[in-house]
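[retry 2/3] Cold-shock DNA-binding domain protein: previous attempt timed out, resubmitting with same input.
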Amino acid sequence: MRYQGKVTNWKDDQGFGFVVPNGGGQKAFVHIKAFSNRSSRPNNGDLITYEFATDEKGRCYAKNIRFVGERLTARSTSRPNALNQSNSFGTHFAVLFCIFLVFSVFIGRIPLVLLGVYLGVSVVTFLTYAIDKSAAQNNRWRIKERTLHLFSLLGGWPGALVAQKTLRHKSKKEAFQAVFLAMVVINCFTLGWLLITKKGAIFLSAILG
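[retry 2/3] Cold-shock DNA-binding domain protein: success.
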């Protein structure tokens, strides 16, 4: 017998949560391995259908889980233009930003070491995304989202954009994208402050020696 319920207390970095059946009843443990479509990950509030089961210790868990109406598929096809436009804008912005950095180094406005910092952190960020993508596909321990955001804040957001586009990882999760955008804005604002203001220039010189 299949039941329908709502996902709750979902911990995406650990790949598990619970489901509360519609109309009330006993909640059941949910693991990412039990989903029939593991290319899409659930969020809190998602409706799913599942079979109810108990383990040898009498604990309740859900198996053979499917999204109601294939929610994530519907989402990805309902707004393709918005997603494509967003990805295109992000790519163009990253390219222009990198051109700006190289040009600023060429005219002596930015020290070469700062360009190296952006490049190095971007490479590390890309590799971190790749590791997390592999972990998601193989049901291993995930890298926390705040770690990915921290790398972006420190200057790795160009590498994060490349990873999102080429690896198709974290690119459709709206909550993640909202925080990621904030990290990009903060990083660019901070760079502008370092380059434009006198205090910023002094601070940058002190850091870079």
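[retry 2/3] Cold-shock DNA-binding domain protein: Confidence is low (pLDDT under 50) at residues 71-78.
[retry 2/3] clearing retry counter.
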